[in-house]
Amino acid sequence: MKKTRYFLLALTVILCLGVVFSASAAQLTAKQMMIDRLQSADLIPAGDINKTASGTAYYQIKALSGALAETMDPVAKLAGADLQLDYKLDSPENKMAINYLVNYDGGKYSGGMFMDNGRFIMTTELLSLLNNMQSGVMPAGQELPPYVYMDDQAYSTMWTNINSGQYLPAELTELMVFFVEAVPEEYFAVSLANQQVSFVLDQDGFENVTLAVLKKVANEKERFAALVADYLVMSGGQQQAADVIRDEIMNSIEQSVNDGSYPDTAAEVKDMMAGIITLKELKYEASMLSPGQHSFNMTLDLGGGPEFSGQLVVKADYTSGKDLCNGTYTVDFKADMGTESLSVTGVMQGEFNQTGVSSLGNDTIKVNVQDYSTGTTMLDLLIEGYAEAEADPNVQVDVPAMTPANSLDLMQMVVDPPVPPITSNTPTVLLNGVPVIFDVDPYIVELENGGRTFVPLRALAEALGCEVDWVAPDQINIMRGDNTINMFINKTVYSVNGVEKRLDAPPSIKGDRTMVPLRFVAEELGCTVQYDGSTNTVIIYSN
Which of 198, 422, 483, 500 is buried most, with the most CB atoms less than 10 Å from its CB? Predict the structure, then answer.
């Protein structure tokens, strides 16, 4: 797990390099051009369109069919749904207002979302819509005021960046510069004859660059830890947690280097990527002229075993300069999930045209899922949309005033959500016939479709022979053999070996213990779970 953590961070940043690669002066090396470009962060056209503007966007599900649409009510309700957004922006005043209208399942939902300095506000009609789509978003019987809001310093930082023309947060920029510094010069090139700069990687180059990044992380762990901590705080973490995050990162790197688990050889990097990812092509070409033509192409092969294989292809061609950015993009994805006998294909494509005073874009999303064991179309989905905006120097952004009577802090609902009723009887847990001892008593949360037994995660994990890893601020990683479960405190979304799923009773914190739904965790790890109601006993058989 330690190896994978550093590998995935390096992988994510390296694959983003081409997106921000651009040119400046011919006398500089191509690598230095990228670093200068990142630090300037002049990535989109300057102008009033990013200061005072108004615009609209519209998206509609144009087609929806297949077995899932016929048998699953939440999917069927999406047929014909559409979303319209009308927005007003006044960045000098640090304000934005978005009015929305949603047609869904025969009903109309309208409301607003607002940003005011460091505060995000939304009308509670949106929660009613989400509750209609996924029951349980709003606790039954809970009365909500007209507005909910959330304060976050990251919003204030966003406005500061926008008003200074820095559209990438400085913390993210500096973190990306750190990675670019590690990339060997051989993968950058300048052609004065063609007035062009390029960045090219194949799988061998990808492995070399990943190794170079990992070595830089180990050699400059203090700087790396500080950059990551600053970025996490900027993204919404608590400032007081920065020192803790910084120390945890440095200690983790130092420990893995000392115990030999840190990947620092070409063979180890190759071994990590084997069966996970193969970079067929990553190529970015940019004109040294402004405005000039740019192209980006990337092909990634994913997996490759009988359980999962796939491919991601990203292409973009555009003209970019100080006053304009226009072009086209395509993202193609295909996957074969052999264990489920499913094939998934998807494509997202669109056009965009932005100047300093206007913007226009359109997008199309297609998804198709086939069960090739039966020849059944599980899902066929088509979404189309467009967005347009104009600079408006006289724009008026009205943000509602928050009072204790008309609003509620959203974080109170997330951090301290309403607690479902808990049964008074403490269940007994047996693993292969042996009682499992917990330092915090298990309890049962009653839901509409039955009870869920919650137990302390670490004690359960140790009993099942799992490793547990905590990633600030709210992620839990559970590893057993080839299986990895990623969960999040108070969130119903989780993933198993990278496949996103949902559960009806999310993990929570009780005292200083992380509590998780026992059956869910055990079954995802391949165990069999039974419940004897007569003795209030949960029985686990480990496979």
Answer: 198
SS3 207: helix
Is residue 68 classed as helix, strand or coil in its secondary structure? helix
What pTM value is reported for the model? 0.67
Range list of β-strands (E), 392-474: 407-409, 428-431, 434-435, 443-447, 450-456, 467-471
Residues 508 and 454: beta-carbon distance below 8 Å:
yes
Q: Which segments of the chain belong to CATH 3.30.457.10?
A: 419-541
Q: Residue range 57-76: average pLDDT?
A: 90
CA distance 533 to 477: 31
Strand, coil or helix: 387: strand
> Rounded to an integer, what distance in angstroms lies between the CA atom of residue 243 and that of residue 221?
14
Percentage with pLDDT > 70 across the chain: 84
**How open is the CA angle 111-116-121, to the nearest 5 degrees?**
35
Retrieve residue 420's tokens: 């479902």
Q: Give the Cβ contact number of residue 437 at 10 Å.
A: 8
Q: How far apart are CA 284 and CA 96, in angstroms?
A: 34
Q: Give pLDDT tens digits for 313-354.
A: 999 999 987 778 899 999 999 999 887 889 999 999 999 999
Peptide bond into 456 cis (omega under 30): no
> What digits encode the pLDDT tens for the residues 500-525?
888 888 888 877 788 898 888 888 88
Q: Looking at residue 418, what is its pLDDT? A: 47
Structure tokens at 496: 């198993």
Adjacent-strand bridge partners of 284? 199, 296
Number of helical (H) and strand (E) elements in the chain, helices listed first: 14, 29
Fold of 419-541: Copper Amine Oxidase; Chain A, domain 1 (3.30.457)
Which residues lie below 8 Å from residue 500, measured CB to CB, with a gap of 6+? 493, 494
Q: Please give the sequence-ordered ranges of beta strands (E in DSSP) within 372-466, or none if there are none.
A: 376-391, 407-409, 428-431, 434-435, 443-447, 450-456
Q: Average the pLDDT over each of 78-92, 153-167, 278-292 and give the range with the smallest value.
A: 153-167
Q: What is the pLDDT of residues 25-49, one digit of tens each?
A: 333 566 676 566 555 544 555 677 8
pLDDT at 341: 87
43-15-337 Cα angle (round to 5): 130
Closest CA to 484 of 472, 501, 467: 467
In angstroms, rounded to a whole number, what is the distance separating the alpha carbons of residues 124 and 408?
10
Residue among 353, 340, 345 nearest 382 (CA): 345
Q: Collect all residues with Cβ–Cβ distance below 8 Å to 509 and sequence separation of at least 6.
A: 489, 515
What does the alpha-carbon distance between residue 98 and residue 56 come to, in Å, rounded to a whole number? 9
Q: Which amino acid is at 241?
A: A
3-state secondary structure at position 43 = coil
77 is written with which tokens?
């309700």
In order, the DSSP letters of 294-309 are EEEEEEEEEE-SSS-E
* pLDDT at residue 416 tops 70: no
What is the longest distance spanned by two Cα atoms in the chain? Answer: 83
CA distance 518 to 362: 45
